[in-house]
Input
Amino acid sequence: MNRQDEADYTALKEYLCDMILEEQLKLGYERETIRFYSPSSSIGHVLKLSDRSKPAVLAALEGFGAYAADTLGEVAVSGAGGGRICFLIPAAGAEYVHAHGVAHPFLKDLIDCFGRHDVTREQVWELFRHYSKSARIIEIKSDEFDDVCYFEDGNPDSYLYCVKFDEGHAFYHRFLKEDFEELFGEASRMKGAR
Output
């Protein structure tokens, strides 16, 4: 493995740890095997691949299981339906993230906020602004989401959070910037940033 592969594998391991940590904050910790499914294009973005097709991504991931073995256990990677990649992370990986993962207080507060009934747009906006003056909130009002919220300077994280408000409930889905732009267009071209 060359240094570039190692850097990209490090980014992928961090990405998977983020996803596991978010799940553990939402659902609680269990020492169990985790199956994580992701579109091949998302993993291709993390690995900085120009060809993000499923075959190209799977080929790039051939050494990832061995690379991650010391922390996440021997991660098994396989193709899944619909152009997705499946990561089978052994129970040792869930335990590693539980023992060593540190969630930023923002993520904990975000999950708490969305866990309440009757969460409002203003409460969500206030939460983002509490954590950074670089918080940006854009009303996108698509069929799937109402707002996208993110931190322009990437601190406390670089994800884009798409939010939907629906009859007293709210939910979010977080995207990598590249995935968001691929699905919705560049955030910088959207109107209504606050």
